[in-house]
Structure formats: structure tokens, C-alpha cells
Specification:
By secondary structure, this protein is α+β, with helices and mostly antiparallel strands. It has one helix and five strands. A hairpin with an 8-residue loop joins strand 2 and strand 3.
Amino acid sequence: MDRIYNGMPATELGVEGWLKPWSGGNGGSCVEALPLRDGRVALRQSTDPDGPALIYSDHEIRRFIQGVKSGEADFLLARSRGTGTVPAHGGADTVPVQHGHRDGAGCE
């Protein structure tokens, strides 16, 4: 691999080694991660494995994970803005937001 850059086609990073750390039964829609030899991490959308790869430094991915764990990314749960809950599957009921998937489900 000559040059690894943000937004490059994920296929140029190969097909082996992509991890789905949140595997389960959510219909296959998840983020896949590929640890790179230089310590960076590539992320791609599992439903578009030929699409772009986002490349993060070790510092960036560590900071992101720390922020998620501390609740700094809760705003990304669109329906939970300020409530601490997200909609339950198939209805208007809500369930508390916890670390990981709201119902324990993950990716295919």
C-alpha cells in the first residue's frame, strides 16, 4: 500500500482483517474497523464495503472512544436529545441509553 488517506476506497485496504466489534442481529448495518500497521484505524460502513474508508490516528480513535464512554456522543442518538432514552424497536416507547447498542443487538 503506497498511500493510505482519509476517504480512500476501502477496497484498496484489502478484504482481510476488517472487524465487526459489535456483531449481532441488527440487519448487518454497522461500522467495521481495520487496525492499520502504522497504528491508525480505518472505519467503513458494513453495508457499503466498497465505499470510502475514514482513517483515524491512534489518538483520534482513543479520544473518540473515551468520549463515547463518557456520554459525550449521546447527542448522536437523534431521538434522545437530552432525554437519556432512545426509541424502542417498532414503537414509541423508549429504553434507557447504555454503553453499546440499546438492545444488545449488533452487526451481522
